[in-house]
Specification:
This protein is an alpha+beta fold. It has one domain: Orthogonal Bundle (Cytochrome p450). Helices cover 51% and strands 12% of the residues. It is built from 18 helices and 13 strands. The strands form four sheets. Strands 1-2-3-9-6-4 form a six-stranded mixed β-sheet, sandwiched between helices. It has a three-stranded antiparallel β-sheet with strand order 5-13-10. Helix 8 packs antiparallel against helix 9, helix 9 crosses helix 10 and helix 13 packs across helix 15.
């Protein structure tokens, strides 16, 4: 089939030339964000690039992204080109995050009430409790003048929040094992995404064996908790996310989820719910260290609302409207350093983008990091300016030029959870500490599904 003739396309995308056979695969593996930024400046908002044996159209404009994610959502769907499914399926199974089409819609309808705004608001106390435990740990670091990997500390507190809100329990003794398992799994998945020439996942390579061992450990943990909660029944109803998942019923069939389905959704909340918020908080503190005027405003707001230092109090749900700068700092950090800097969809039929032919099975790679720095929508795009997200300015923003949680029907279902979590934790930390980056460290990006500082971000905490 002559796709261009069929669609009436008269233009073609510029092509980013890579190496013979492998195209831009090596550059993509090493640093996909830098590759896509450089190619964007060279070719414009839409171009093609070969990554291994596959060709992708790379999109760096919100209009083009909304064509794929909203206007043509029934044509462009989540990837099925890697061994029959997205690599995340290996960890999350057939969950809300990994499915599309009718299967996804049924899951979304089932899950939507679980993440209703009011239900999330009711979890603020547990978020603050986990934040208070974090402050106790940081007090010890501050007293000893310890050098601390902020990336790891943010993972501990966000995992604690997921555990408290998901299971109503404190599993901090198991957090190292859980976090280690999730990190290893994400790194393995990132390797498969960036290198389509990988051997099949079930081949007994050392990396594959390590992954399946991690997957087994995760399953043992999750299935044990699910079985225990089902066995306890209503006598142990805690009103947490797990209870809500077990109680969820399909509107049409009135059927609930079996253990495997619950396990997949819990794994999705774990995988997406702690890592993304942890890296966003880490980048926020990196940006605040580079912009002391913004840090001073954040601390002044926390002092005014909560009181200064250890003499202050913990925030409550009622305080959130009075902490707009904390939320703005978190949102601006996610603009400059989107936790997930790119996403991929695949054309399930011959179609077009912006009048240019896209054949069936071509991938559409949406460069979120580029969109977040597009000069058409973001003046001084490379600068950290939280004021962009203050209430009086937020309504002026192009909603699709900002997509840390994606946009359209596949927008992250936990976005309100993450925003409240980030706002509370930033305010609590700013109230109590100066967070000083250790001098002479080089902060580089590393993309392993999420975009994190390579090797972490090393800081010292000083009590205010």
């Amino acid at each position: 089939m002559n796709t261009s003739a069929t669609l009436g396309a008269t233009r073609t995308f510029p092509n980013h030339k890579g190496h013979p056979i492998i195209g831009s695969m090596l550059d993509f593996r090493n640093d996909p964000v830098t590759l896509l930024q450089r190619a964007w400046k060279q070719h414009g908002d839409a171009f093609t690039a070969n990554i291994g044996p596959r060709k992708f159209v790379v999109l760096s404009h919100p209009k083009l992204a909304t064509e794929v994610l909203i206007e043509r959502k029934n044509v462009f769907k989540r990837s099925n080109i890697f061994e029959g499914g997205t690599p995340l399926t290996y960890v999350l199974g057939l969950s809300l995050i990994t499915t599309d089409g009718d299967g996804w819609l049924a899951k979304r309808r089932l899950m939507q009430p679980v993440f209703h705004r009011q239900r999330i608001a009711n979890m603020s106390d547990k978020m603050v409790a986990a934040g208070t435990s974090m402050l106790a740990r940081l007090d010890q670091h501050a007293s000893a003048a310890n050098k601390v990997n902020l990336s790891e500390e943010m993972k501990v507190v966000t995992l604690d929040i997921i555990n408290q809100t998901m299971f109503s329990t404190n599993v901090l003794p198991e957090i190292d094992r859980i976090g280690h398992t999730i990190d290893n799994s994400l790194t393995w998945i990132a390797g498969r995404i960036s290198n389509p020439l990988q051997l099949p996942a079930r081949w007994p390579t050392p990396a594959n064996r390590k992954f399946w061992s991690n997957r087994t450990q995760m399953d043992e943990f999750l299935y044990r908790i699910i079985r225990d909660r089902r066995a306890a029944g209503e006598t142990q109803n805690k009103g947490d996310l797990l209870d809500m998942l077990l109680a969820a019923r399909d509107e049409d069939t009135h059927l609930g989820m079996n253990d495997e389905q619950v396990r997949n959704e819990v794994a999705g909340i774990y995988g997406a719910g702690h890592e993304t918020t942890a890296v966003a908080l880490t980048w926020a503190w990196h940006a605040l260290n580079q912009h002391p005027e913004a840090l001073q405003k954040l601390q002044a707001e926390a002092d005014r609302v909560l009181g200064a230092g250890t003499a202050g109090r913990a925030p409550t749900l009622a305080d959130l409207p009075n902490l707009p700068y904390a939320l703005a700092c978190f949102e601006e950090a996610m603009r400059l350093y989107p936790p997930v800097p790119l996403t991929v969809r695949v054309a399930y039929e011959d179609t077009e983008i912006d009048g240019i032919a896209v054949p069936q099975r071509m991938g559409a790679l949406i460069a979120i990091h580029n969109i977040h720095r597009h000069p058409e929508f973001w003046p001084d795009a490379d600068e950290f300016k939280p004021e962009r997200f203050l209430p009086e300015n937020k309504a002026k923003l192009n909603r699709n030029a900002y997509m840390p949680f994606l946009t359209g029907p596949h927008m992250c279902i936990g976005n309100n959870f993450a925003l409240m979590e980030g706002q509370l934790l930033l305010a609590m930390m700013a109230q109590r500490y100066h967070v000083r980056e250790v001098p002479n460290q080089t902060v580089q990006r590393q993309v392993a599904i999420t975009m994190r500082p390579k090797g972490g971000l090393w800081v010292r905490f000083e009590k205010r």
